[in-house]
Amino acid sequence: MTQNNRSQWDAGRFVKTLAYFEVIPFISCLKRLFSGNTQHHKPSQSGGKRLGKIVVAGATGGVGKRVVRRLMERDYPVRALVRDSQRGREMLGDEVELFEADITIPETLTPAMMDGISAVICCTGVRVQPVEGDTPNREKYYQGIKFYMPEVVDSPEIVDYQGIKNLVQVAANHLEPGKQLIFDFKHPSDDVKETWGAVDDVVMGGVSESSIRLIDNAALFSGTVSTKNSGGFVSVRTRNFEPPLNLVGYEGMELRVKGDGQRYKFILRTESRWDGISYCYSFDTEKDTWIDVRVPFEALIPVFRAKTLQDAEPFDPSHIYAVQLMLSKFEYDGALNPHFEPGMFSLQVE
To answer: Parallel, antiparallel, or unpaired for β 322-328 and 301-304?
Structure first.
């Protein structure tokens, strides 16, 4: 008789993984039906799960209100710049974060206004109203039917020149040039669980198990990696972005992580297929130390099932469908990961 050293394989978790990433659409539909959630969730390219807040200056103006509404409809987190918070709340509602400031008064444009901000949209302009005046809600200006003789109330030089100059100055001091925030786990939205999911070696008979969850100002990728049943990898991956992320014009990505001394892989996928070509970059971590990891696009290695592809197309930054983090006992082409230890692991991502 031969001894069976294989550990028990969790077929249920295997099916759940495929269902979460909609590899088996029928099971995904049943899951949504029995859970009472009939919404077909698809991560969008926008949204708080991947972007910092957006400041909208002039948010209570005619254009500004429309911009705020459109951004909110697309799940962008918005910080509205208003002169009067009470009036701003009445006009914009309770879901929009307000910041009281005046672009013509630079002292009001404090660093707190730019905390967690990834972009600034300026919708300011001089105020125009009927010569004989208007109501506090500017009902005559917005009614759009009867003509009133207009007059410019504010000074164009103060608002359109000096005010915008002040806004550009504070933005330039806090926004890093040439960078776009993709994921911000310091200021995440509540739907991170609907974006990231585990893809462990259970998909090939292994018993490793991982998860990703939010902790203080970071996301924690952790669990247990096992080499039993010829396994030895854990990973977390996003569902496919719709539309795909377009990073044309950028040279690469940058991560801020705190690991456990092991070597991890950062993976980008330019195909919508579940089991397609991936572009990989391996990086070492320092135990319990925050480090910045730069991933040049030109350094990404085309890989299919841990084997490098010599004739693959170059990485295309215009169609990034998914992002993945992995810990594996293997590097590429059968080589072992020199900084890998089976057992518990943890990687924080800021």
So the answer is: unpaired
- Domains, in order of start, for the chain: 10-40 (no CATH), 53-174 (3.40.50.720), 185-349 (2.60.120.430)
Query: Shortest CA distance to 169 belongs to which of 125, 104, 124, 123?
Result: 104
Amino acid at 34: F
Q: What pLDDT does residue 139 have?
A: 54
- What pLDDT is recorded for position 149? 45
Neighbour count for residue 123 (Cβ, 10 Å):
18
Residues of the chain where predicted confidence (pLDDT) is lower than 70: 1-7, 9-52, 126-159, 177-178, 188-193
SS3 sequence of the chain = CCCCCCCCCCHHHHHHHHHHCCCCHHHHHHHHHHHCCCCCCCCCCCCCCCCCEEEEECCCCHHHHHHHHHHHHCCCCEEEEECCHHHHHHHHCCCCEEEECCCCCHHHCCHHHHCCEEEEEECCCCCEEECCCCCCCCHHHHHCCCCCCEEECCCHHHHHHHHHHHHHHHHHHHCCCCCCCCCCCCCCCCCHHHCEEECCHHHHCCCCEEEEEEECCEEEEEEEECCHHHCCEEEEEECCCCCCECCCCCCEEEEEEEECCCEEEEEEECCCCCCCCEEEEEEECCECCEEEEEEEHHHCEEEECCEECCCCCCCCCCCECEEEEEEECECCCCCECCCCCCEEEEEEEC
CA nearest to 120, candidates 74, 166, 89, 162: 166
What pLDDT is recorded for position 41? 47
Rounded to 5 degrees, φ, ψ at 244 are -65, 155
pTM above 0.85, yes or no: no
In degrees rounded to 5, what are phi and psi of residue 200? -105, 180
Tokens of 321: 């469908």
Residue 125 in tokens: 């302009």
CA–CA gap between residue 196 and residue 210 (Å, rounded): 12
| pLDDT averaged over every residue in the chain | 81
* 233-238 vs 53-57, strand pairing mode: unpaired
